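User: Before I run my own analysis I want an independent prediction to cross-check against. Here's the chain; please return only the structure tokens and, at the end, one sentence I can use as a sanity check.
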Amino acid sequence: MASSVETAIRSVVTKGLTGLAKVNRALKDQSRKHPFLSGIHAPLHDELTITDLTVTGTIPPELDGRYVRNGPNPFNPDPRGYHWFIGDGMVHGVRLKDGKALWYRNRYIRTTMLEAAGGPKAAPGPRRGEREVINTNVIQHAGKTLAIVEANAYPQELSYELEAVSSHDFEGTLKGPFSAHPHLDPLTGELHAICYDAMVQDTVWHTVVSPEGRVLREEPIPVQDGPSIHECTVTKNYVVVFDLPVTFSMKALIAGEQFPYKWNPDHQARIGLLPRHGTAAEIVWCAIEPCYVFHVANSYEREDGVVIIDSSVHETMFAGGPDGPNGKPLGMERWEVDPKAGQVRRITLDSAPQEFHRPDERFFGQQYRYAWSLGLPQSGDPAFLGQAPIYRYDLQTGERQAHDFGPGRVPGEFVFVPRSADAAEGDGWVMGYVIDAANETTDLVILDAADMSKPPVASIHIPHRIPPGFHGNWLADEA
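Assistant: Structure tokens:
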């Protein structure tokens, strides 16, 4: 624990560096066309409620709930030092019931930084840190709809209609940072996350939230260099820690970049297997070749104790410029992590560029068969996303299916929704937003999860472009 003197010194140094960063940021080109502030990424200015949505096809009557996605939508965009990951958060949701699309709503996440930029007044509630940007995911847990982000701010609770309620620290039980990518263990109902703080370079935390919405555990894990850890995953006995070579960069911060994380080839890439109820001293660390992972499809333990991790992998990340994600995508890989030998074996399942893997979440942390992912443009794109298919993988047969949406149509992450609580794995639908770049419109597209060759089951038409975001979920109405 830092002494009061150390805390005071750190505060003065931080303020000095922040001031220098602002000066250097002001010297950048304000007229520059930024790839994540233009084209499909141009921000949407208005908050809208639309109740007369046109539908092509038939919405399955089993779908009773909301599809909601979070993403960056800067209120007062400035290209100087801007990065896709730091824009003000905005959620976009569609309510489905009885085979009908009842409404579309988009709402800003009402943070202190949004208010400071001239936006709507911040929601009430406790705060953590000065940089409150909540733009990455939206989940439903313990009866609450929560917009979430990693590294700084508390979650923000939203109403059913997506209006801001208050910032949320899990009834006062969350003491440290939270994550943009917690995972629900369907066998226990607990949320697991690996969390980091941009101002703390030597510690990350394994945080567990109970089914009732209270923090049960915040286990500190010693690290070096301040790694950016977007993802984690769980198995029967372990929580997996991805300590990979994207770390805090003082040089980037001083240069005025607002997302000060860079590829760091000097940082030892490693995978940690933390016993779910153990301490950091019990982690089994396994070295791996330098690479980066944003998103896991799933993970589980084989009978011989080897941990299997399937994910989309990048050769590097944040090594090619300051604007957003960049680096060579390596496709979908399977990692066999052997805790006894302390080794990782990497196997390429598909070299097609892709991201945003999602499984049937009812089987998360368990042996599974199916996964879906978003293809990335084959030749790369300054805007990261572009015209590309949605893939479906059968990990038992090795079959890959693909659904292409046609010229000029840009999908985002698609999520799986089961037909019923007890349906077989993969029996249901996948859904997500698809931009029509030429017409500046968007569809919420519902596909048959078992056969990607079929035309969409239904498309709900939204008469404007929804900028690409990060994570969405199907938030089913509770019985």
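Sanity check: Residues 283 and 319 are 29 Å apart (CA to CA).
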